[in-house]
Design a protein that fits this description.
The chain is of the alpha/beta class and 290 residues long. The protein is built from twelve helices and eleven strands. The protein folds into three domains: 123 residues, 3-Layer(aba) Sandwich (Calcium-transporting ATPase, cytoplasmic domain N), CATH 3.40.1110; 109 residues, HAD superfamily/HAD-like (Rossmann fold), CATH 3.40.50.1000; 50 residues, no CATH class. It holds the Pfam family Hydrolase.
């Protein structure tokens, strides 16, 4: 997922609206009640500017889509998909600016007031230094790498290109990540999911192998079949390689165990006595104990 490939240190890059400071203040007043990385970056920006935040009324968090609540009016903050679902009006000038920001691979939070989008806050994250190398290693191992993200298609495409991923699923809600895993499993594929957030827990549980980063949330760590202590994506490939070598060693040991016992059990039982070969009982007992 996107959050696993990036550093998770999102920062506000653009604020679009008639009064950017007021827009940021209102957005941060709502987002301070959310734990989403985008919300955190918006609140951090408001704190840096020294803005005094307010207490919203009727606050509601919309999982994977945004938040809403009342301040000087009814505010809805979230993705473009949320705006469409709630039939919120999007002015042409803001839509044009959104297209421009999307082309830069930025993630956008739309701020709507009383049923009309009043502005946009754009945030951007940086790709982890080892992400491209980790993806390349996985592909060299013959694995199919798919990115699943809640971001819009343009942002997803920009991130996928940076890390070397050809296949991605964009605008996937938290509850739909499980369905995406199941779709891949229907293709008779063994699916490993790498995640670190609260929203990843169901998908980690649904996958054949859930790989959680140690720096992730407690829920993700508890759900994962494998927990990578270091926040290093290259350890994903190492874990898969280690598991393959371990399984190979298990099969090798089983082969020699069966071969050894197939030969020596009949000998210990005296099958060669007719031709004058008999194993000392003490040696036979010792051989079987090996």
């Amino acid at each position: 997922k996107t959050g696993t490939l990036t550093k998770g240190e999102m920062g506000v890059t653009d604020i679009v609206g008639e009064d950017p400071d007021d827009l940021l203040t209102k957005a941060a007043s709502l987002e301070k009640l959310s734990e989403h990385p985008i919300a955190t970056s918006i609140v951090k920006k408001a704190d840096e500017k020294g803005f005094k935040l307010r207490e919203p009324k009727n606050f509601e968090s919309l999982a994977g889509r945004g938040v809403k609540g009342d301040l000087d009016g009814h505010y809805v903050i979230g993705t473009s998909r949320l705006m469409e679902d709630m039939k919120i009006e999007l002015p042409d000038e803001i839509k044009a600016k959104a297209e421009f920001l999307y082309d830069q691979g930025k993630t956008l939070a739309f701020i709507a007031v009383n049923g009309r989008v009043a502005g946009i806050i754009a945030v951007a994250d940086q790709i982890k230094d080892n992400a491209p190398k980790a993806v390349k290693r996985l592909r060299e191992m013959g694995l199919r790498v798919v990115m699943i993200t809640g971001d819009n298609k343009r942002t997803a495409e920009a991130i996928a290109k940076q890390v070397g991923i050809d296949e991605y699923r964009a605008e996937v809600l938290p509850e739909d990540k499980v369905n995406a895993i199941k779709e891949l499993q229907k293709e008779r594929l063994i699916v490993a999911m790498v995640g670190d957030g609260v929203n990843d827990a169901p998908a980690l549980a649904a996958s054949d192998v859930g790989i959680a980063l140690g720096s992730g949330t407690d829920v993700a760590v508890e759900t994962g079949s494998i927990v990578l202590i270091k926040n290093n994506l290259e350890d994903v490939a190492r874990a898969i390689d280690l598991s393959k070598r371990t399984f190979s060693k298990i099969r090798q040991n089983l082969f020699w165990a069966f071969a050894y016992n197939t030969v020596l059990i009949p000998v210990a039982a005296g099958v060669l006595i007719p031709i004058g070969i008999q194993m000392n009982p003490i040696l036979a007992a010792g051989a079987m104990a090996m």
